[in-house]
Amino acid sequence: MTRILLIRMSSLGDIFHTFPALTDLRRARPDIRLDWVVEEAFAEAAAWHPAVDRVIPVNLRAWLRQPGPASLRALRQWREALRTEHYDRVVDSQGLLKSALVARQARRDQLHGFDRHSARESLAGLLTGRGHRISPSLHAIQRNRLLLAAALEYPLSGQAEFGLREALLPPQHGDAPLVFLPGTTWPSKLWPEEHWITLTRLASGAGHSVELLWGNQAEADRALRIAAACGNRSTVSVAAARRSLTDVAGTLAAARAVVGPDTGLTHLAAALDTPVIGLFGPTPLERVGLNGPHATNFASDLPCAPCRKRHCRLLASDSRATAPCMAGLHPEDVWHRLQSMLRAPRRLITTSLASADLA
Fold this sequence. Notes:
Elements: E1 2-7, H1 12-28, E2 32-39, H2 43-46, E3 52-58, H3 60-65, H4 69-82, E4 86-92, H5 97-103, E5 107-114, H6 122-126, E6 130-132, H7 140-152, E7 178-180, H8 193-205, E8 210-212, H9 217-230, E9 236-238, H10 245-254, E10 257-261, H11 264-271, E11 276-280, H12 285-288, E12 295-299, H13 324-327, H14 331-343
Parallel strand pairs: 1-2, 1-4, 2-3, 4-5, 5-6, 7-8, 7-10, 8-9, 10-11, 11-12
Helix pairs in contact: 1-7, 1-11, 8-9, 8-14
């Protein structure tokens, strides 16, 4: 049996962008056993894909944030545990210096990844034993598919299939809520709270129930402010406690529709074949846009977008204002598109989920 180690540690959206490549791999090379090194916060999601034999969590973010003897000791212990296994091939699909260094810790015959012209950080390509040239202009899903196909030497064809477990796909109900995702880790990706309030009022006024999801305390506070401004507790709800990723996935799978900025959960909704609208300002559609048969991307047309910056360069560093690219995406336009999606027939969800053809 061929043993493969995949290095793709973060972020949550990038984890989901890797799933179609794993579906390809499982179909083309059923003899392969695949282990996956991923940040501990995303280990739950990585385990959803049936091609994954073992998830190997790593706390690299925490160790880098708090350098010292304790972090160094934990890193050494993790490395010793990783090296108990020998891999035929290690594939670094992240293309960063940190992922290349992690990949080099494994006992292996071959190390594959993007070459220096294709990697997100060129130095990572120089540390890769066998670099593959894959255009950086392609969507992240297609780059992952092409990389694994090149590293494992199988032909790539057909549509991208996310291959999520059936457990994530509960039966659909007619009274399912609309799910809104007002939170994001990048300040430049935030949609204005007043826009969320307007959209939520339009939805609840039309008779829809709305659920606001959150992942940390700042996002919870934001969701509570939006709900309070709407004033109708019977139709607008905010979870009382943080949920597991699996619980959130079930909520997204059952939702009538989802609206959110460019975040991992918005991409998960698209992967689950849920009608979803993505709000894009600083990030490029051609590389990270939503892909799914019921996904719609709303993008800013400002000349400075997409800037790919976490903080808007047009705002002062201490400003709490919303980036102009996101503020310019009007809630009335989003509501109009959302209404069209709700009126359109939605095919039944099956365990085989297909996104748009990216080949």
